[in-house]
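Figure 2 data, in text form.
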Amino acid sequence: DQGLIDITRKAPEQARDILDGLRFGLAAHVGSEADMLSSLLEEPGRAERLQFLVAQVLAAHRAQQRELEVLARMDACSPAWHDRATTLREMVKQHDAHEQASLAPAIRACVPAAEYEALAGLFATGRLCLLTMAPRPARIHRWSWR
């Protein structure tokens, strides 16, 4: 959120650097979350209850990535840039609110409490691996949650 605020308040060169960081960070977030959510859908009985919500999350991520790509092609700090950055910030806030109100409770209802708590650590580890380009497990298995 702060990065999306900063790209509208900084000089063009700084705004571009922040935008590059946002693109990189979003890619790591998207990859890690997609891995985690895909592993949840592999468990019998969960796909039916979570598939629609997961599809919404993945669609929101694609829309956010498209907005970042549009910003990357625009003149930094122009009025159109500021409008687009503000729109993207609102998209991200709505996405977060949707995940908290819909996806998180649905996952909590589908997985045992200990497994749910372990998901945050797996997500953070996956994101860190993507950010640092460290190797990450090809797949996240249920047994790794215990």
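Caption note: The chain is about 80% helix and 0% strand.
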